[in-house]
């Protein structure tokens, strides 16, 4: 037994992922890990309907042996594992819930070692592994690994064998023909096979190539070939058949030389476990068949056919793995001398007296007769006892004259000397380098060139072409194709059905009762019965009359005007074609009396003179001639023909309509169009022959009345016109009046919610709580559409806030609208509800349709979005750099740089709250302003957790643009940052006081231990604490206010505007606190105003000295306008522009700065704010409709560039200022070190300390 194939045996997990060309179907995953082992399939991979298939080609063998490791996982409850080989169930096992839990959902698992042994002799095998599990792989699953296939191979040299065959028993079986063996579609050849009545092509069915197959070979199709065979008397034919799709008991036939050798019925329910792998949705079947038959002819005509009765797309078939073996027991080597054999010693060894069943000399013999040696060659000794030659063993070296060994180099060595090979012109040491004319050097050997029109030594002929059957083929004598025995180009015998004439040419003779092979003869029944002779004329099978395409007695096409029906060419009446001798006319209808009826001429009824469908009579009274027909005319007052009546009108209510008796509407009983009794709710007016409803009679007329409450009054639910009034529900009763009750009906409406990013949001609301009586989700009944907008440029997404259920709830939906294009108009969103909703009293919706006008879409393409994001990122880098420089400057003692940077960043961050709709690129830019916050610092020190016990943080909704940015209007929450900063300032202040007190109370003796460096450090700490104490008492709160006035004022004004939304105790506390903070800020600012200084100083110097006052007032007014005028964008923008202009004029006029750098920085900052607020008028609702959105985006780019430029210039100026300060500190430090080096070491280190204490 030989291991031929193995898979999934490698313990490395990565190699198991490659499934080695196995076909996996109906699986969720390919592999899984279970208990540290990776398996093919497994948990959540192989479950219900999962299959694993492998198609293998095999060498000659007679048995298959398969081993594998099977994993049963989770809740198997009696299901089976199935393993099929070539569609035959070879193994099955039932599995339960026994075992040990390894993986999966907690059920018991089991690992089984399976072994399968089965006789098998075919060229290929189709392996299928599956189960009948009925759950998905997360409930019950399976897998396998360590798959191995062993073969019991045939003896060497045997191409076909059985289990008990020995070498000499299987050797006579010779493979004489094969086809369709490849498993690669690229190398799948037809090899002369033909498909009749089908498509001459191959198909691939789940990686398995087939000849024929789906939609190629089906009803009436034949697969056939004529195969030439060597001498034999027994044949063994093997092939695989593919049954595809809906076979329902039809037969598959195999004919050999016209004899039926195999008839196999198949039903699609017997699919060998293979689910639908090609074709339609039916199972396939791929069995192997073997046919053994006695046969001695030199050829075999094989034909495959079926009894299929449906079209190609419903059921089809194909073949592959075709092999023919012939049995010829006359084999050299069987130990028996037969026919032309001189000897047979039962082996294939040379130089033993018999080789290839012919006498030969023994090794070393020079002359022998019938295998008996009489003289030995040089170097051999003759032994007369056994007539053998024994080699001389004592001359182990070449003689001096020897160049080579004649025995070892028999073609290029003679008498110990090198010679040129045959037909060689130039050679050296027996190696040829050039050949004589007419020969070609190939691999150092001279070979004749066939096709050069010259006959060389080994050539029998050369006709300078490659045409077969013309007398010479491949430079060998050849005969015509129909010749069965050819000798030197002369045919001596012909194949079946052909006769050799005097010129040695094979010809056919129709009438010889033989159907000649490879000919145009289809039949030959000269000696058969008369019926067969009638079907065969001139050796051609005859079809029905009028057949235009006849092949093997089967008609495929009829002559013009005939139609093929059940192999009979029939004229079809009604096809518009006139068939002579069968039809007179054909008007493609079955209308009588129209001139042609049933393809015969026919005139109108009662016509006396009819010629070719045309009546030459005059019409009777009441009839009129039209298109050679006498017809009646309804409405002429004459009752004729099929007319019941004719009242000269078209009134439907007078009893006669379209010349037929007609009962009036709502009539229950009538006679000849006269109503006798009306339906309930209607009254009969005999004079007018109508049934009329009366509103108010208490009877419901369903087609005309919605209700009838037995009165003609409005306002009681049923109007005077018998219509149900709004907000009423009426119940109608048979033969009684309606009862109406008041019930407020719900309605739905659309409300614009917000516009965020490039999306708009619309809320779908209802005036009452409603419910859905259906069981499924109501959201699928909501139809959304944008009116007159291309559907390819927008997307609508329905977000369910509260869906409708079978009980009443506050139903709410949000529609997300994304428009990926710029529109010049405001689109309209329309909503239609395809299903009714009901309130608690089962009142239906008043409306099921509504629409709302959206805002003009703001769209930026990907390139512009990328550009905006890049500028935003640059803005963040600049802000982070400025923040870092400011912090560094603050620790170096220059708080002015820190406050200046903070001022620029805060002012630009508050520009986003101007209540206009910015273009999307500018909106993206302003998103970077969110980084201007110290909330991460507060979260790091957990300040929020410290403040939580004091007061809780709540969220109070803002309004307008502030609501869009989700700004919290709660004062106590917003001042956390300022409280934290103020707390830090006071902690530092009291810490400095404590440090000063500690230093002042320290004794001099205690400082001796600090040393010189310690004392020096102590001096510096005291100096810094003293400066901070003086600075804090003098301008501490004022500096804090100036640095934080943006946030403090914004928080206070926001609390004022939002206090109306809440009236609880907390809101009152926040409102009072806001007033106190604002009052405190004003009191601090009042300190800037000093009447005495105004009198003492000149006018200009006074305005210069009060810069902080004007700057703070500018912030206060700016924030007040920004917050309090949110609902009027025009006034807000104008006032902000005016404030910026006044302050900019003050800066330009008085230049209240120490140096030109500060003045230039302030001009840029305030100038950019003025330009931004002034140009924001373009974004007003009124003006934005006049300017295209692309131009607004362009202005947004200009705003972004301007704001970035201001930040960048400010960054450069602050870097320059910081460099100068660092340079000054370094120079000061170096100067001080130089001064210390001028003095010697002081032997009294406490001198300075004593002076300090004194």
UniProtKB/TrEMBL annotation:
Cited InterPro entries: EGF, Myxo_disulph_rpt
Thylakoid keyword on record: no
Keywords for this protein: Disulfide bond, Membrane, Repeat, Signal, Transmembrane, Transmembrane helix
Residues in EGF-like domain copies: 360-390, 403-447, 474-507, 662-692
Any Pfam family hit: DUF4215
Keyword Cytoplasm listed: no
Membrane-crossing segments per the record: 877-898, 910-926, 979-999, 1068-1089, 1109-1125, 1131-1148, 1160-1180, 1200-1222
Domain of life: Eukaryota
PANTHER family: CHROMOSOME UNDETERMINED SCAFFOLD_176, WHOLE GENOME SHOTGUN SEQUENCE (PTHR38934:SF6), HYPHALLY REGULATED CELL WALL PROTEIN 1 (PTHR38934)
Classification via NCBIfam families: myxo_disulf_rpt
Record protein name field: EGF-like domain-containing protein
Organism: Paramecium sonneborni
């Amino acid at each position: 037994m030989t291991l031929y194939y193995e898979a999934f045996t490698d313990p490395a997990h990565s190699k198991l992922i490659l499934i080695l060309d196995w076909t996996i179907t109906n699986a969720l995953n390919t592999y899984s890990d279970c208990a540290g082992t990776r398996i093919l399939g497994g948990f959540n991979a192989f479950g219900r309907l999962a299959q694993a298939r492998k198609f293998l080609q095999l060498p000659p063998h007679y048995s298959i042996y398969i081993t594998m490791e099977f994993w049963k996982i989770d809740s198997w409850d009696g299901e089976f594992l199935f393993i099929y080989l070539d569609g035959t169930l070879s193994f099955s096992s039932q599995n339960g819930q026994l075992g040990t839990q390894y993986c999966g959902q907690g059920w018991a698992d089991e690992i089984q070692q399976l072994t399968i042994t089965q006789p098998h002799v075919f060229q290929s095998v189709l392996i299928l592994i599956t189960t009948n599990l009925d759950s998905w792989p997360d409930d019950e699953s399976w897998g396998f690994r360590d798959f191995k296939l062993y073969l019991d191979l045939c003896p060497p040299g045997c191409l076909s064998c059985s289990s008990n065959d020995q070498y000499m028993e299987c050797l006579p079986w010779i493979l004489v023909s094969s086809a369709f063996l490849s498993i690669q579609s690229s190398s799948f050849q037809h090899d002369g096979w033909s498909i009749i009545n089908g498509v001459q092509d191959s198909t691939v069915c789940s990686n398995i190539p087939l000849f024929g197959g789906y939609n190629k070979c089906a009803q009436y199709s034949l697969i056939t070939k004529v195969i030439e065979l060597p001498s034999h008397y027994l044949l063994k034919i093997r092939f695989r058949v593919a049954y595809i799709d809906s076979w329902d008991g039809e037969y598959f036939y195999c004919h050999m030389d016209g004899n039926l050798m195999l008839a196999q019925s198949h039903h699609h329910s017997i699919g060998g476990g293979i689910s639908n792998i090609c074709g339609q949705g039916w199972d396939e079947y791929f069995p192997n068949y073997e046919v053994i038959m006695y046969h001695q002819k030199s050829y075999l005509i094989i034909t495959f056919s079926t009894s299929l009765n449906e079209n190609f797309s419903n059921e089809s078939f194909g073949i592959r793995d075709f092999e023919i073996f012939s049995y010829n027991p006359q084999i050299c080597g069987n130990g028996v001398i037969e026919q032309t054999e001189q000897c047979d010693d039962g082996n294939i060894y040379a130089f033993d007296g018999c080789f290839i069943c012919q006498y030969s000399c023994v090794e070393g013999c020079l002359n022998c007769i019938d295998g008996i040696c009489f003289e030995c060659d040089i170097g051999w000794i003759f032994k007369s006892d056994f007539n053998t030659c024994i080699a001389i063993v004592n001359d182990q070296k070449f003689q001096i004259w020897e160049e080579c060994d004649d025995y070892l180099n028999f073609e290029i060595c003679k008498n110990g000397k090198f010679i040129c090979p045959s037909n060689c012109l130039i050679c050296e040491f027996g190696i040829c380098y050039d050949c004589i004319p007419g020969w070609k050097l190939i691999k150092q050997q001279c070979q004749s060139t066939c096709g050069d029109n010259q006959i060389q030594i080994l050539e029998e002929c050369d006709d300078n072409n490659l045409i077969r059957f013309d007398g010479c083929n491949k430079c060998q004598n050849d005969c015509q194709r129909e010749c069965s025995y050819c000798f030197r180009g002369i045919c001596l015998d012909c194949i079946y059905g052909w006769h050799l004439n005097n010129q040695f040419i094979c010809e056919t003779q129709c009438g010889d009762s033989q159907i000649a092979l490879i000919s145009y003869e289809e039949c030959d029944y000269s000696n058969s019965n008369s019926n067969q002779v009638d079907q065969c004329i001139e050796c051609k099978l005859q079809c029905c009359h009028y057949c235009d395409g006849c092949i093997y007695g089967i008609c495929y096409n009829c002559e013009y005007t005939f139609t093929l029906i059940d192999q009979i060419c029939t004229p079809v009446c009604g096809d518009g074609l006139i068939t002579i001798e069968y039809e007179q006319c054909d008007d493609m209808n079955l209308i009588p009396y129209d001139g042609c009826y049933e393809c015969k001429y026919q005139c109108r009824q009662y016509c006396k003179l009819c010629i070719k469908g045309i009546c030459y009579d005059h019409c009777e009274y009441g009839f009129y001639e039209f298109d050679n027909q006498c017809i009646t005319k309804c409405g002429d007052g004459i009752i004729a023909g099929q007319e019941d009546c004719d009242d000269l009108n078209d009134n439907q209510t007078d009893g006669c309509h379209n010349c037929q008796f007609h009962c009036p509407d709502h009539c229950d009983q009538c006679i000849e169009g006269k109503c006798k009794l009306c339906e309930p709710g209607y009254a009969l007016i005999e004079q007018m022959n109508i049934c009329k409803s009366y509103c108010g009679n208490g009877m419901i007329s369903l087609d005309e009345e919605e209700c009838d409450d037995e009165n003609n009054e409005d306002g009681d639910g049923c109007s005077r016109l018998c219509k149900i009034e709004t907000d009423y529900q009426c119940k109608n009763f048979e033969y009684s009046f309606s009862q109406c009750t008041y019930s407020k009906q719900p309605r739905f409406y659309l409300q614009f919610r917000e516009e965020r990013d490039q999306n708009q949001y619309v809320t779908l609301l209802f005036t009452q709580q409603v419910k859905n009586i259906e069981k499924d989700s109501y959201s699928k009944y909501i139809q959304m559409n944008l009116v007159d907008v291309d559907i390819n440029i927008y997307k609508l997404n329905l977000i369910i806030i509260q869906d409708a259920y079978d009980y009443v709830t506050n139903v709410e939906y949000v529609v997300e609208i994304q428009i990926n294009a710029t529109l010049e108009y405001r689109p309209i969103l329309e909503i239609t509800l395809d299903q009714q909703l009901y309130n608690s009293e089962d009142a239906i919706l008043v409306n099921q349709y509504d629409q709302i006008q959206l805002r003009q879409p703001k769209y930026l393409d990907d390139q512009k979005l990328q550009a905006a994001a890049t500028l935003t990122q640059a803005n963040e880098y600049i802000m982070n750099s400025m923040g870092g420089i400011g912090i560094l400057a603050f620790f170096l003692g220059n708080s002015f740089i820190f406050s200046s940077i903070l001022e620029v960043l805060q002012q630009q961050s508050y520009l986003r709250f101007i209540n206009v709709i910015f273009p999307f690129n500018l909106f993206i830019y302003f998103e970077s302003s969110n980084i201007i916050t110290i909330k991460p610092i507060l979260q790091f020190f957990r300040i929020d957790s410290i403040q939580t016990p004091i007061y809780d943080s709540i969220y109070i909704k803002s309004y307008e643009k502030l609501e869009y940015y989700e700004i919290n209007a709660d004062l106590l929450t917003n001042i956390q940052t300022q409280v934290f900063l103020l707390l830090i300032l006071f902690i530092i202040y009291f810490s400095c006081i404590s440090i000063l007190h500690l230093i002042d109370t320290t004794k001099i003796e205690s400082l001796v231990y600090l040393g010189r460096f310690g004392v020096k450090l102590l001096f510096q700490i005291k100096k810094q604490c003293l400066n901070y104490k003086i600075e804090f008492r003098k301008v501490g709160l004022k500096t804090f206010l100036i640095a934080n006035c943006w946030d403090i004022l914004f928080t206070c004004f926001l609390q004022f505007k939002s206090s109306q939304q809440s009236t609880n105790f907390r809101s009152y506390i926040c409102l009072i606190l806001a007033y106190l903070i604002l009052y405190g800020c004003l009191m601090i600012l009042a300190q800037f105003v000093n009447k005495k200084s105004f009198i003492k100083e000149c006018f200009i110097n006074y305005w210069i000295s009060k810069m902080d006052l004007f700057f703070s007032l500018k912030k206060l007014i700016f924030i007040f306008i920004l917050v309090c005028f949110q609902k009027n964008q025009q006034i807000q923008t104008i006032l902000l522009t005016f404030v910026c202009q006044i302050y900019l004029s003050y800066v330009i006029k008085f230049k209240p700065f120490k140096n030109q750098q500060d003045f230039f920085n302030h001009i840029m900052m305030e100038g950019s704010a003025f330009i931004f607020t002034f140009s924001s008028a373009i974004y007003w609702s009124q003006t934005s409709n006049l300017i295209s959105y692309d131009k607004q985006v362009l202005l947004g780019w200009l705003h972004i560039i301007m704001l970035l430029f201001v930040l960048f210039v400010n960054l450069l100026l602050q870097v320059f200022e910081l460099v100068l300060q660092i340079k000054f500190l370094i120079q000061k430090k170096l100067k001080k070190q130089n001064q210390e080096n001028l003095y010697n070491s002081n032997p009294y280190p406490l001198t300075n300390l004593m002076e300090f204490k004194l």
